[in-house]
Amino acid sequence: xxxxxxxxxxxxxxxxxxxVMTVQLVVISGILGLIFGLVLALLRLHPNKLVSTLPFxxxxxxxxxxxxxxxxxxxxxxxxxxxxKESVLWEPIFKEKYWCAILAFTLNTxxxxxxxxxxxxxxxxxxxxxxxxxxxxxxxxxxxxxTLPRAFGIMLPAYSNEVIFMLKGSALAxxxxxxxxxxxxxxxxxxxxxxxxxxxxxxxxxxLLTWVILFCFKLLEKRMNRHQNYVPxxxxxxxxx
Length: 241
What we know:
The structure is a single chain. It contains 11 helices and no strands. It has 241 residues and is mainly α. It has helices at 5-44, 49-64, 67-77, 82-85, 90-94, 97-122, 126-134, 139-169, 181-192, 195-224, 233-237. The model has no long low-confidence stretch (mean pLDDT 86). The chain has one domain: MetI-like fold (Orthogonal Bundle), CATH 1.10.3720. α1 runs antiparallel to α2 (49-64), α1 crosses α10 and α3 packs across α6 (97-122).
């Protein structure tokens, strides 16, 4: 087989148009999943067993079933119920494949993010929380000023991995005919019969998007955990005599 670089070059503009959809799916689902995952994590840590059991069951279901099954259940499955078709959410959300994909990705990633946040909160040194109690902080002040900032700094490496998994999982949106990178790649390959070159170009594009995600999280992690590299002025300026 002769390698055709022209096919790769010609495919880039079309793949980039599909990348716009992929980025939208990842960004919107990532933000919504983070918010919902935070709520789930706080409920999971609630001392009341009844309160913590409901989010546990939710997390167990969405972590234990394939994302593809969840997409099909939301996009194809809900349409079989008459009460869904008669609801006010049918036309704007559940009938639209774009929002069904967003919903499926959000529900799926929120389950993983909830466990990431829960683990981060539980790994915060108890001395820091005890110090907040000692100076008279309220529960809300301790949560917003100590617990959540420290937890987000701890969870960033794991959260960046989840975002990358979601980037690769976004390829499943092609199963409901959303025109993202993988759908566009399949379409180009079917028209040109140059499967290897086209999928190679798509792989490079995914690698570039992954690098951007890692770079952004690296900067954010450096910002959130800057206290770890703090050197007191008297130590920084002192000299050994």
